[in-house]
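Supplementary notes for students who missed Thursday's class. We covered one full example, reproduced here. Read the sequence, then the structure, then the short commentary at the end.
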Amino acid sequence: MNRFLLFLFGIAGPLVAAAQTSVPFGLVSRPDLVKVVHGTETLPNPWAGGLNSPQFSAIDLNGDQQQDLYLFDRVANRSLTFLNVASPNGGRMYRYAPEYEALFPSTLLNWALLRDYDCDGRPDLFTLAGGDIAVYRNVAGSGGRPDFQLVKDHLSYFNNPTSQGNIYPGGYNMPALHDVDGDGRLDIVTFDFNNSSVVQYYRNSSPESCGGLQFELVTQQWGGFASCATSCTSFSFNNVNCRPAGTAHTGGHNITLLDLDGDGDQDALIGRDYCPELVSLRNDGNKSEALMSSAGLNASFPSGTTPVRIANFPTAYHLDVNFDGRPDLVVTPSVFDNQDTINTTQSVMFYENTSASAVPNFAYRQNDFLQRGMIDTGESAAPTFADIDGDGLVDMLVGSTNRNNAKGFFRASLTYYRNVGSATQPAFQLMTKDYLNLSTQRYAGIRPQLADLNQDGRPDLALMVIPMRVNGTAAPTSQLRVLLNTAPAGQPAVFNPATAQVIQNLPNYIDDAPCFADIDGDGRLDLLLGTNINDQAATSLRYYRNNGAATLSQAFVLANADFGQIRNSKNVPAPDNRAYNLNPAVADFDGDGQPDLLVTDSEGRIQLFPNFRAQQGAFTPLPETFYNELLGRYQPVWLGQGRINQLILAVADLNGDQRPELFIGLESGGMVAYGVRGIVVTDAPMAPTLLTAVQLYPNPARGTATLEAPDPVRVAVFDVTGRLLYRSATAARTHHLDLHDRAAGVYVVQAETAAGQRTTRRLVMQ
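Structure (token representation):
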């Protein structure tokens, strides 16, 4: 049986389509793609991606009057969305719903909190903008979904002409957004950016009873206390400055406001950088004037249960997460990276509020809230797939690092999931978190690749490993080590780390990202390597051809140091246009029988280059790759951004449908899963369509170009980053494109019929 795409999104050459369906190609999120079992427990959200430093907010995402969850992970700068749904076992549960993540801005950094400032019942979005606070108003969207519109790129205060300025918490501090004085308007309390020791109180002074964003600075030292550098639990009170104690503590402070004693005013929970405690301060004043004292300090909060102890920078979030209507407490680390001694598989502490009165009682329940229900291997998850046990089903290995040992050092290992399902209904069972006992090798990072490198029909194991320094930190180097499978065909794989071959002639730079694929079509697996090494300008992706040498360590020879000429999106000259953290994967995603190249980078971009063998020089990406079925449109996927952020790609056909499934390993230790839409099965020969006759001329062009089609089409023009530059308002057989204001370079012109058939052409502007 032949398999065909409705549309083949190649850039060069005529395109064809099957008449049986009008569903175009796209990658779609599949959070329930494969069942995953840990012990006897089936994970409810296996492909949610893991959590490291999440911030929690409540919001109704789908208009069903249920409070769902919005999370923003500070390490990856990633939004996550969970729906409040009925549990199969009764009650309620949270189900990962990534289709709602596209409703949130992709530019969020450091922190993001949802608070309703305009009293319309829809929480608005507050986030960092530089060191300022930006506000997105949540307006009524389609289907009851949120729609965030920027209303303030910064917040300011005004007392008088000589006392005014921006409200500036800075990058480390996360403010408390709360009605402090009880007037129904949202106020702001934040640690002072200049010295991070005292708390500033900005009262909402808007003339409206609700809905304004005007503020006045009421006091530079709310509550009369200061956080001192003497120790993690040291404070001064009565507006007294801290005593000098050597080097001042310059890290961040986060503050959460809630009424701990039921007296109607706001008490405080404070966590600080480099400290494990969450300190509570009781407010012995009132709504108008807070007053904290040493008598109200509790460094073992909450009392009567397991106190909060997180290795670094605990921050509390006060919201109901167990569906009983009482706000609980969730505490997480507020770190920016994974350089601390934190076990990031257990970094979300849940304290249930067991009190029905105005005085909460927080009882410790678990340290892996939500994490227990997902694959979370710690940090830097790197998946790969092959039949490891010889039963004919595709299994999974995941490379990752964690710090769950006694000394808190990096420990890289392989987690092995065996496929215990069937050829059409896969199911992964966790077998071991330390396959091959590699944690004893003192690696700071492992990226595995399962591939038949010696062409004997059995999967071999390649490991890009990062060595560890004596002090437990990662060295700035790497090695690509190959472990040949010595087991007979059809038997469980046998890999011996002691006999590994080291691939020569590589940059051997930290976080190099390998991908084995047949690039030149000669039947041998070549090597694509994403690298950040700066020995050559902008050479982020390198192609090493397999020359067939008998010794595998010498078989890969550099053939192209700038494969695809892939750059970042900043439109700046070299060397500042380099794409960092480039991670490649090769598969026939669009079903046209030709391999495609998929890459990720530190900006969070995921680009698909169709039929890359037919492209030369700078590859042209597909303008639209990921399809959001909830919104009914193509939508870029944002899984995080930042120089430390790694998105590791892996491809496998797990359900035997001859279509690739895509898995992306995240910095937060888990994975997300995608399937392919737009492929149809037919025994009939594929008929040509009107799209094969689309003409675009002249090409190359100077200023103008003409597109002609046999039937009316709409036209869109994209740049090579996928940014939409022009879309025609009406359909026509002939379109004259005026591109005088466009710079010289490569553009993508897309034509679409009324039936939804699409084709693309590459246009070179001189």
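Commentary. Residues 661 and 675 are 5 Å apart (CA to CA). DSSP finds no helices and 55 strands in the chain. If anything here is unclear, bring it to office hours.
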